[in-house]
């Protein structure tokens, strides 16, 4: 883009737009990381479940003692209201698949953020130069 | 003459508002498309095991082929909607451009006489 041909005001608008884009992308990145953390926690929880006595939540403040009948059977939510019964190994694989997909997206976004930041630096550099030139011409 | 210009500008605003609405609908559908594609891929991997659908507060068992079929149908619908909306967006982008050109021309005509 021909940044050199823009005046400081227009460059200011470009800078604002880039700032907004970087903020949006950074938010998305944070959301993805949060989701990865949750899948990681689920995976760890899977490994810790065995035939133990547990407390089952009936409401937010009422728990009832229970026992896990089949520690190898889990119900996994795969999206849009669909749930699938999976074994412990399959569930763990599912979590890994999701985490990998999310981390791939995180990489893409982080590359985009870096690209925008470099562009932002360029815009600010040109703005500084133009303002200097303008001040010099005023003397 | 200035009144005609005012009307054209208000038309332009309407077009741009519609464009923003269409764009937001497209984004929604693209999101739904990704989610349903993920479900479709997961259902492909399922060989044994039961599939359930959350209907209200209840998990209702579903046949695997039925679930796959439903997701495929939904994806077909979503893709059709995206195509339709993309075409609508292209139409409105064209209207936007034409309107902006018309307004510029009117402003130019108005300029010299306005003085």
TrEMBL record, chain A:
Supply one GO molecular-function term.
unfolded protein binding
Q: Which GO terms describe its biological process?
A: protein folding; RNA polymerase I assembly; RNA polymerase II core complex assembly; RNA polymerase III assembly
Q: Upper taxonomic classification of the species?
A: Eukaryota, Sar, Alveolata, Ciliophora, Postciliodesmatophora
Is Chaperone there in the keyword field?
Answer: yes
Q: Kindly state which keywords UniProt assigns to this record, in alphabetical order.
A: Chaperone
Query: What InterPro entries would the database entry show?
Result: PFD_alpha_archaea, Prefoldin, Prefoldin_subunit_alpha
Known CDD domains for this protein? Prefoldin_5 (cd23157)
Name by which UniProt lists this protein: Prefoldin subunit 5
Family in the record: Belongs to the prefoldin subunit alpha family.
UniProt source species? Stentor coeruleus
- Pfam annotation, one family: Prefoldin
Which Gene Ontology cellular component terms are annotated?
cytoplasm; prefoldin complex
Domain of life from the UniProt record? Eukaryota
TrEMBL record, chain B:
Q: Which GO terms describe its biological process?
A: chaperone-mediated protein complex assembly; protein folding
> Where on the tree of life does the source sit, at the highest rank?
Eukaryota
* CDD domains (alphabetical): Prefoldin_6
Which UniProt keywords are present, listed alphabetically? Chaperone
User: What are this entry's molecular-function GO terms?
Assistant: protein-folding chaperone binding; unfolded protein binding
| Chaperone in keyword set | yes
Q: Does the keyword Disulfide bond apply?
A: no
User: Record's GO cellular component, any one?
Assistant: prefoldin complex
Q: Which family does it belong to?
A: Belongs to the prefoldin subunit beta family.
Name of the protein in its database record = Prefoldin subunit 6
Taxonomic classification: Eukaryota, Sar, Alveolata, Ciliophora, Postciliodesmatophora
């Amino acid at each position: 883009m021909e940044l050199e041909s823009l005046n400081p005001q227009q460059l200011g608008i470009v800078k604002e737009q880039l700032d907004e884009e970087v903020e949006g992308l950074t938010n998305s990145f944070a959301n993805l990381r949060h989701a990865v953390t949750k899948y990681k926690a689920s995976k760890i929880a899977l490994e810790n479940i065995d035939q133990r006595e547990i407390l089952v939540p009936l409401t937010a403040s009422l728990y009832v003692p229970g026992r896990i009948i089949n520690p190898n059977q889990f119900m996994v939510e795969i999206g849009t209201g669909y749930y699938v019964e999976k074994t412990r190994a399959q569930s763990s694989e599912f979590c890994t698949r999701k985490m990998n997909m999310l981390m791939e997206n995180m990489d893409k976004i982080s590359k985009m953020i870096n690209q925008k930041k470099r562009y932002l630096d360029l815009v600010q550099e040109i703005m500084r130069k133009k303002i200097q030139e303008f001040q010099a011409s005023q003397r | 003459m200035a009144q005609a210009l005012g009307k054209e500008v208000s038309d332009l605003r309407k077009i741009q508002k519609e464009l923003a609405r269409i764009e937001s609908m497209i984004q929604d559908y693209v999101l739904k498309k990704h989610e349903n594609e993920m479900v479709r891929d997961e259902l492909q991997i399922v060989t044994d095991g039961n599939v359930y659908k959350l209907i209200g507060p209840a998990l209702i068992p579903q046949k695997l082929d039925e679930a796959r079929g439903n997701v495929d149908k939904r994806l077909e619908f979503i893709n059709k909607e995206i195509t339709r909306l993309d075409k609508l967006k292209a139409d409105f982008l064209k209207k936007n451009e034409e309107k902006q050109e018309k307004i510029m021309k009117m402003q130019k005509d108005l300029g010299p006489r306005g003085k």
